[in-house]
Task: inverse folding
């Protein structure tokens, strides 16, 4: 296989990964969530490096399975391996603009792009855009989400927790 | 590296602490003071179980055996968790008459989380790179746990007389065993010398200083010397509570350890 063909295969794998979604937030591609760190193709074997969002996320096994099922369909790929490297660490600034829009469609307020750990963060309602919102629970239905209430349009909603690297003092 | 006993002991300590406290926490599911707390506490336990799994996988990489077996098939005396973290939530069982003590849950988790914070601060600089990578990830999630338990702790301590009375009893109970949590066990010196983690003394001082500030803030008396009355879990000394917990949590696994999980 030539270098160009291999590069095209990598491109195709990336495209296919665009259709793999988080099973718990199925409006968003794992690529737009910033979970796909790298794709390598060696001959007919594809290796996909995926960054877990939260350590105890039970969706990882399903995501792994969905990636294998999707990538194995690519012409020229006969073997798929999914690895979860321990670095870099997934942070919420990896979410793309499109990913943020898709989160909103799901009723989830996306995390701010730049958040200083420990600081309060302003969370606009994904339905009406108001920031007149209150945090009901720092923890939500999944590890990465929290529960809020909009005082303007009276809707309960969720937000994705900001996750930033903690600097070393 | 695989033969490094100090590193292996440290990883067991880290894994078993999170594992057993997450298990005790999960026994609260459906019994927490209100439904929002059920959601929050479960989320925290899920994170902590995830942290334990990471450490068991690091042990697996060092040739200690399969992670699932390390968590489910080891004998109680092989566990390295602190005794305080294995203790029952209260009288009764999950299924029958659970008379669980919420003050104990709050104090135990708060004390432990503060210690875990200093532990992660230190481990982020660990000379063993897989461990420092893990600590960076854990730290991010831990800050949410800390915010949660600190809120509960301070609010209950500045609440009604009954809340204060129950909290004070729980503090006394946890204070008497906290020495076990802060202990690094018989290989403490070697762990520090090899740069895996800060010395026991350093972390003990940081924890005590933090507590002094907290007690000052809420206007409560500082309890004084911490203790370790029921044995040092880092040496495999445990109570019946651990045996019971392990029997319950490995009951399904043990019916057929050969099946895929």
Result:
């Amino acid at each position: 296989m030539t270098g160009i063909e291999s590069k095209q295969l990598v491109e195709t794998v990336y495209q296919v990964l665009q259709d793999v979604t988080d099973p718990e937030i199925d409006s968003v591609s794992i690529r737009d969530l910033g979970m796909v760190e790298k794709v390598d193709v060696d001959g007919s074997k594809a290796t996909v490096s995926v960054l877990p969002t939260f350590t105890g996320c039970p969706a990882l096994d399903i995501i792994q399975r969905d990636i294998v099922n999707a990538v194995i369909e690519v012409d020229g790929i006969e073997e798929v391996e999914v690895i979860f490297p321990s670095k870099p660490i997934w942070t919420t600034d990896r979410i793309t603009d499109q990913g943020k829009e898709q989160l909103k469609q799901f009723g989830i307020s996306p995390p701010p792009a730049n958040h200083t750990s420990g600081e309060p963060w302003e969370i606009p309602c994904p339905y009406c855009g108001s920031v007149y919102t209150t945090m009901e629970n720092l923890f939500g239905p999944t590890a990465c989400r929290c529960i809020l209430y909009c005082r303007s349009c009276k809707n309960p909603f969720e937000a994705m927790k900001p996750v930033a690297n903690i600097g070393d003092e | 590296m695989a033969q490094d006993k100090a590193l292996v002991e440290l990883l067991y300590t880290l894994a078993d602490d999170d594992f057993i406290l997450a298990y005790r926490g999960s026994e609260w599911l459906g019994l927490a003071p209100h439904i929002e707390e059920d959601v929050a506490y479960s989320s925290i336990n899920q994170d902590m179980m995830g942290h334990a799994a990471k450490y068991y996988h690091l042990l697996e990489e060092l040739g200690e055996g399969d992670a699932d077996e390390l968590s489910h098939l080891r004998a109680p005396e092989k566990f390295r968790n602190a005794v305080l973290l294995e203790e029952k939530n209260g009288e009764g069982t999950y299924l029958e008459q659970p008379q669980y003590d919420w003050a104990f849950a709050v104090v135990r988790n708060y004390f432990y989380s503060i210690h875990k914070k200093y532990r992660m601060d230190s481990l982020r600089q660990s000379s063993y790179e897989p461990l420092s990578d893990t600590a960076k990830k854990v730290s991010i999630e831990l800050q949410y746990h800390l915010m949660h338990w600190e809120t509960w702790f301070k609010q209950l301590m500045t609440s009604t007389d009954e809340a204060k009375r129950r909290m004070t009893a729980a503090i006394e109970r946890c204070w008497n065993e906290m020495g076990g949590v802060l202990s690094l066990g018989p290989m403490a010196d070697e762990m520090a010398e090899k740069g895996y983690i800060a010395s026991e003394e350093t972390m003990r001082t940081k924890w005590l200083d933090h507590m002094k500030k907290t007690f000052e803030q809420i206007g409560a008396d500082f309890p004084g010397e911490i203790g370790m009355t029921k044995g040092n879990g880092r040496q495999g000394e445990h109570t019946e509570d651990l045996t019971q917990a392990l029997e319950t949590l490995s009951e399904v696994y043990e019916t057929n350890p050969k099946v895929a999980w």
Notes: The mean pLDDT of chain B is 95. The radius of gyration of chain B is 18 Å.
